Amino acid sequence: MGSVNQAVPRSRVLVAEDDRSVRESLVLALELEGYDVTAVGDGERALEAVFADPPDIVLLDVMMPFVDGLTVCRRIRARGLTVPVLMLTARHEVSDRVSGLDAGADDYVVKPYAVDEVTARMRALLRRTSVSGHDGVVTAGDLVLDPLGRTARRAGRDLDLTKTEFDLLELLMVNAGVVLPRDVIYEQIWGFDFETSSRSLDVYIGYLRAKTEAAGEPRVVQTVRGVGYVLRLES
Fold this sequence. Notes:
Elements: E1 12-16, H1 20-32, E2 36-40, H2 43-52, E3 57-61, H3 69-78, E4 85-89, H4 94-102, E5 107-110, H5 115-126, E6 138-140, E7 143-146, E8 151-154, E9 157-158, H6 163-174, E10 180-181, H7 182-190, H8 200-212, E11 221-224, E12 228-231
Parallel strand pairs: 1-2, 1-3, 3-4, 4-5
Antiparallel strand pairs: 6-7, 7-8, 8-9, 10-12, 11-12
């Protein structure tokens, strides 16, 4: 008697892109990669789709009618949803890309992009396992993080972190006291040959500091100029 194959749930992707040809080609490519794809052509419909049934990941074009991509991202985060958001932008200026991260996006791809790059960044964002490989609770001073439960606390206070913020804190906590170079952090968190000269990492470090210091706690995420970052506890 032959064995019965168990169906593996496919990741559900929402593609929000107003250019029909780009949208259709992206949908086709993602479906060939095994994703379950829903596509919309404007920001208003993107919000309706996310709020009605949050997908596993959102691919979000910046320039869209009715509601632009940055506003869509802000509204998703304002609802408390932590669904990973990958921005698709034609804007090449660093300030424009940082605006996307400031809006709550987890990553971005600049057009024209290769589908392989998009799917690589998606895989990194959809990774459900611990970024550090730890399956037990990690502690560092008054910080407590559960990689599998995806919860983090400082001094008993819950930290409301996006996926990228959580992964970054986990990496720093597991390596507490060790200075992590920027390229190592990019590789571990984003899982792709990211532009290490960009400000993306600096933006997320800023978010992490704001949340871990929100109750007036001392800074633990330290900058090592010219090298990278380290989680360093007070002696």
